[in-house]
Specification:
It is built from three helices and ten strands. The chain is α+β, with helices and mostly antiparallel strands and 179 residues long. It has two domains: 1-38, no CATH class; 40-176, no CATH class.
Length: 179
């Protein structure tokens, strides 16, 4: 509501000062910039790393630094779908451990392009990166064994390292800091 009042006041101010054509162009530029900036962008600090979590129409971007750009990042990001979720553990100042969670979209949107840190990715058992396809092990016993190993690794990381856990669908974020 307050935003609408500000926009109306701005438009009326410009209407007196400029022609209608310039007014429309200015207003469209202003609305575009505001729309680009406020697409669910939040900053979270985990120990010494600040993460930007930016939910856009192209998915949710997790960037391991404060990102103020108007356009999507070209490097140093993890992109998941808008219903996806993941947990990033900070093993040390230069290594990230990224655990992706099962999602309804079959992990079709996973793009990890991080250059600033070394990283390891952990997909849920039965998922294959790239095409988002589900690839189950030959025997169901192998699936449960492999899944229990992955869950044990995740629990070990939860107990040992600081982390940020992000659910893009609800935009809920959980943090664990050591400092």
């Amino acid at each position: 509501m307050i935003f609408a009042v500000i926009v109306v006041a701005f438009v009326s101010f410009l209407a007196h000062k400029y022609s209608h054509k310039k007014l429309i162009i200015s207003l469209l530029c202003l609305v575009f910039l505001i729309f680009m900036w406020f697409q669910y962008r939040h900053f979270y600090k985990v120990d010494d790393i600040t993460f930007t979590v930016w939910k856009t129409q192209n998915g949710c971007y997790i960037i391991p630094y404060r990102y103020f750009g108007l356009f999507l990042p070209q490097k140093d990001y993890v992109n998941i779908s808008n219903v996806g979720s993941l947990t990033i553990f900070i093993k040390d100042k230069s290594t990230l451990l990224i655990f992706y969670d099962r999602t309804d979209d079959g992990l079709k949107t996973i793009n990890c392009n991080i250059k600033r840190f070394d990283y390891q990715e952990f997909l849920p058992i039965g998922y294959k990166k790239g095409n988002g396809g589900i690839v189950l092990p030959d025997k169901i016993e192998n699936y449960f064994e492999m899944d229990s190993i992955l869950q044990a690794k995740r629990k070990q990381c939860i107990d040992s390292f600081p982390f940020i856990s992000i659910s893009a669908g609800t935009m809920s974020v959980n943090l664990k800091n050591t400092k």
